[in-house]
Design a protein that fits this description.
- By secondary structure, the chain is of the alpha/beta class.
- It is 36% helix and 16% strand.
- The strands form five sheets. The protein has a six-stranded mixed sheet with strand order 3-2-1-4-6-5, sandwiched between helices.
Length: 454
């Protein structure tokens, strides 16, 4: 975690020198997006960024993103207000709308997911290198308390990072205000004669975040201030990063990852690992075979651990992965039933397939007739029968149903190092498509139900 400048908690606004220190890390970027909602925190981000941009002569590209959730009648007006403020401060802006039916429950979490998804889609179009957020020290403290009430472990209680390299939707997140109290952001706006929208849900006691804000006032009277909560969260993050490093070392020692997708480990070696690290190792396996960061409930992953520590065989699914315990090995592979990988037709250019493999297709004009119309999909959908496949020894056949396969328009399966070999020479034409595994990135979780980023 990068150090965050320690900005005092007095009631005055931020000085130019303080702002320059907070935004100094942004100098390394040439294309940014700012997430702005119209509230005091994000509006302060917009205003101070604009001033810093002029003062520092930062000449990169920037776009303000505001999401109209459509959850309140005034949300469209708020989006227009943000766009207007951005234009007044010389910044481009784009309003994004959350279309479709809205959920009846867990609305704040669903809105957060939709917000990140919409912004990620726009960032994919603009090529922005990072999304700048206005999370501040009070948010950090509230997040710690929220996760503490849910029984979170080290991962859940660890701090948000000022530089989150792999946040929701794979976005890189920048949080320059993490060391700043909310009252100083509001004071910065008042000093400029600016007003902001106040979301009524912030004071609505039916929302947990609102209740936590009230509790924080009582805790501060006992000495448990937002600063102390935030410092504890930072220390938890330091511990989590150490645990992550140990788990990566253990995985390199006990896990065998097949190029075609599945993983396996020796059951005896697994039992020798301490329990907390075993739970993290199981999360690591899920992410390795699915390409997605898992968010299992603690009881689910503890039940899986109990099975693997017993002498019994068994099979269970967890977060899109199938685990099978045999006498010697535990295998893990990507589940195929409910959401099988898609099949891409006429593969062209570069991209990522099924969150697990990065592909690079050659220029179509360089391909011969046999190579045109490349297909990339799961082995279970490839034009090949089971008897034609050379199955790897020591691995269950179902473990390869979602393995990548490449074939052409004539139905000829093409040979590639990450694909399973076929027995017939007829289906062993050379593959001109480059495929490589996407490396695992981001924090490893410890099996709680609330580990997502704020």
């Amino acid at each position: 975690m990068h150090n965050v400048p320690d900005i005092g908690s007095d009631g005055g606004g931020l000085s130019a020198d303080e702002v320059d220190a907070l935004f100094s890390r942004l100098n390394s970027f040439s294309n940014l997006s700012l997430a702005v909602s119209g509230g005091s925190d994000s509006l302060c981000l917009l205003v101070l960024f604009s001033e810093w941009r002029q003062r520092s002569c930062w000449d990169g590209s920037v776009e303000v993103l505001v999401v109209d959730h459509g959850l309140r009648p005034e949300s469209a007006a708020e989006a227009r207000f943000v766009c207007g403020m951005a234009h007044e401060h010389g910044l481009a802006a784009r309003a994004l709308s959350w279309e479709g039916n809205k959920p009846d429950s867990n609305i704040q979490d669903e809105a957060r997911r939709a917000r990140y998804r919409l912004m990620a889609e726009r960032i994919a179009e603009t090529g922005a290198q990072a999304l700048v957020l206005a999370h501040h020290l009070d948010d950090q403290a509230e997040t710690f308390l929220d996760r503490l009430t849910r029984g979170s472990g080290v991962s859940g209680l660890s701090a948000m990072s000022a530089d989150e390299t792999r946040g929701p939707e794979g976005l890189r997140l920048q949080r320059p205000f993490l060391g700043v109290r909310k009252n100083r952001l509001e004071a910065s706006l008042r000093e400029r004669g600016l007003r902001w929208y106040q979301d009524p849900s912030n004071d609505d006691a039916k929302y947990k975040r609102s209740r936590l804000r009230r509790i924080m006032g009582l805790l501060a009277e006992e000495g448990l201030t937002a600063e102390r909560l935030s410092e504890t969260a930072r220390r938890m993050r330091r511990s989590r990063e150490a645990l992550d490093a140990v788990v990566h070392d253990i995985s390199a020692r006990v896990l065998e990852n097949h190029p075609a997708g599945p993983s396996r480990m020796n059951r005896g070696s697994y039992r020798e690992v301490p329990e907390d690290l075993r739970l993290r190792l199981l999360n690591h396996m899920v992410q390795a075979v699915t390409g997605r960061r898992p968010e299992p409930r603690l009881k689910q992953i503890e039940a899986l651990d109990a099975l693997f520590c017993s002498p019994l065989p068994g099979r269970q699914t967890l977060c899109g992965a199938v685990f099978e315990a045999g006498g010697t090995f535990v295998w893990c592979w990507r589940e195929s039933g409910r959401f099988p990988p898609e099949t891409l037709s006429d593969v062209d250019g570069t991209g990522v397939w099924d969150h697990r493999y990065r592909y690079n297709a050659p220029d179509p004009c360089l391909l011969d007739v046999r190579g045109k119309g490349l297909r990339l999909g799961p082995l279970m959908h490839a034009p090949v029968t089971s008897k034609d496949i050379i199955w790897p020894q020591g691995w269950p056949k179902p473990a390869f149903e979602c393995s990548p396969a490449v074939w052409n328009a004539q139905g000829q399966v093409l040979a590639h190092p990450v694909c399973l070999k076929t027995a017939t020479g007829e289906n062993n034409h050379s593959c001109s498509l480059d495929l490589e595994r996407v490396p695992i990135r981001g924090k490893l979780l410890d099996g709680r139900d609330d580990e997502g980023d704020v």
